[in-house]
């Protein structure tokens, strides 16, 4: 087992003024103009700024030096993520100290995380075992296993290197495995525990060594705090905290009207959200990633990340994990070019009254084990130019809410991948779903249900499914409105 002394290392946090200085004076910093990964954090500032939590109980504490510690032994999914979703080939190095293992416990470092449930990881396990694992939407596939010391109370040096479709993992210099294939193409880094407690320290990410080049020419978000050193205090935005991503390289403009296949955007920065952000008027996020509320699970008690007042607009936002209960619309609202990377409980819930009008235009959502859009209030929701992947339902009108509103949904130019149901509505409440220009991808057996009718009921009871398919009354579409690709 390796016992290493600690050296001072800090993350690069480049604010608006710093970027101006870099561009004007060609000052070199440890980031690359080609989006090479570059990251360091030794937690000596006593903070975990720039990391987004998903489950567990995390804090920076003293353990000879400052370390990041997770102390909830019962948490099945305790994760902390950092970095940029566009990172591709890099080496993650860290020190980790398991402090307790439960049954099936694990202490891990994570690479190429595309969501809170999809990544590659090196897991230290009880019984002096380490595994290289690929996790896809929560399903674990073991790639390699080896015997190495993994006992509690000792520090271990771990590395996880990803290059192309190849990954290599080591513990204290011993190779756990080198495996090709089955990896996400890009993604963030993370540290995690499952039914275990642990400490993490000296987290470093490099891409072929640190490249000394001028900072990227893409302007940093205007809300970042100017920085004169390698560490800076982030700026509060409402109830959020903003820092720039380590290496932003591009932004993605909203999809033009009529388009359903816009590329998923690369975040221009990060906003850590400790509590619900209340929006009245318009909030334009500039395609920064907002994350930090909730545990990434399906609990019905989580707070919303954004609460929109009647008439409010949310636009150009990437919602990362954890995101709690996503977006709440208390009245009519508009969501433009909003992207959910990993839906926790729901992506958005619409709560307005009988005459409320809601619009979702552009954007997309991934990894919703249940619903993407939940319609609890009344009125009409229009969803257009949207894409959904790996979901239970794209839309559901509430079937057992305290008030049984008549609800309507209009879906146009929507692309659906690996989703069980596009729309679920209550026939006995007078609900309707009108669908046009729906494209279903990769479903040769046509198993996706386009529109399902339910018998709505009262709180505490479950709605009864009545059937699916067009009926001219509740599910309003023709077979020609659906393209199977």
From TrEMBL:
Residues 220-270 have a biased composition (Low complexity). Keywords: Calcium, Lyase, Secreted, Signal. It comes from the Bacteria. Residues 41-205 form the 3-keto-alpha-glucoside-1,2-lyase/3-keto-2-hydroxy-glucal hydratase domain. Residues 208-275 are annotated as: Disordered. SUPFAM superfamilies: Concanavalin A-like lectins/glucanases, Pectin lyase-like. Its EC number is 4.2.2.2. It catalyses: Eliminative cleavage of (1->4)-alpha-D-galacturonan to give oligosaccharides with 4-deoxy-alpha-D-galact-4-enuronosyl groups at their non-reducing ends. This is pectate lyase. It comes from Cryptosporangium minutisporangium.
């Amino acid at each position: 087992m390796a016992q290493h002394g600690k050296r001072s290392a800090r993350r690069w946090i480049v604010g608006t003024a710093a970027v101006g200085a870099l561009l004007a004076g060609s000052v070199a910093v440890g980031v690359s103009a080609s989006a090479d990964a570059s990251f360091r954090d030794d937690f000596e500032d006593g903070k975990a700024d720039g990391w987004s939590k998903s489950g567990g109980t995390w804090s920076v504490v003293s353990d000879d030096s400052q370390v990041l510690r997770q102390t909830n032994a019962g948490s099945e999914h305790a994760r902390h993520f950092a970095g940029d979703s566009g990172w591709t080939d890099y080496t993650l190095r860290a020190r980790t100290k398991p402090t307790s293992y439960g049954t099936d416990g694990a202490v891990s470092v994570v690479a190429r995380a595309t969501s809170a449930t999809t990544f590659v990881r090196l897991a230290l396990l009880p019984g002096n075992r380490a595994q290289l694992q690929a996790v896809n939407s929560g399903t674990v596939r073991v790639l390699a296993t080896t015997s190495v010391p993994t006992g509690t109370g000792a520090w271990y040096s771990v590395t996880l290197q990803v290059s192309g479709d190849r990954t290599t993992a080591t513990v204290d210099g011993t190779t756990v495995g080198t495996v090709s294939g089955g990896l996400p193409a890009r993604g963030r880094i993370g540290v995690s525990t499952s039914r275990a407690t642990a400490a993490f320290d000296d987290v470093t990410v490099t891409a072929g060594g640190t490249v000394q080049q001028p900072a990227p020419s893409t302007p940093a978000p205007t809300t970042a705090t100017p920085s004169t050193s390698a560490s800076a205090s982030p700026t509060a935005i409402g109830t959020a905290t903003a820092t720039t991503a380590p290496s932003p390289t591009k932004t993605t403009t909203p999809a033009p009207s009529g388009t359903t296949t816009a590329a998923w955007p690369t975040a221009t920065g990060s906003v850590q959200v400790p509590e619900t952000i209340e929006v009245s008027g318009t909030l334009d996020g500039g395609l920064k990633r907002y994350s930090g509320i909730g545990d990434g699970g399906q609990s019905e008690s989580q707070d919303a990340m954004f609460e929109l007042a009647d008439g409010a607009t949310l636009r150009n936002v990437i919602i990362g994990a954890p995101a709690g209960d996503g977006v709440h619309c208390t009245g009519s609202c508009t969501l433009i070019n909003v992207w959910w990377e990993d839906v926790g409980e729901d992506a958005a819930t619409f709560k307005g009254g009988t005459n409320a009008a809601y619009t979702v235009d552009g954007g997309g959502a991934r990894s919703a084990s249940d619903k993407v859009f939940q319609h609890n209030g009344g009125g009409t929701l229009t969803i257009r130019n949207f894409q959904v992947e790996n979901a239970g339902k794209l839309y559901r009108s509430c079937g057992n809410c305290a008030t049984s509103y008549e609800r309507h949904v209009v879906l146009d130019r929507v692309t659906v991948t690996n989703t069980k149901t596009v729309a679920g509505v209550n026939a006995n409440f007078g609900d309707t779903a009108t669908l046009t220009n729906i494209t279903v991808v990769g479903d040769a057996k046509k198993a996706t249900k386009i529109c399902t009718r339910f018998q709505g009921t009262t709180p505490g009871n479950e709605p009864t499914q009545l059937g699916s398919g067009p009926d001219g009354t509740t599910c309003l579409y023709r077979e020609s409105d659906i393209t199977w690709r």
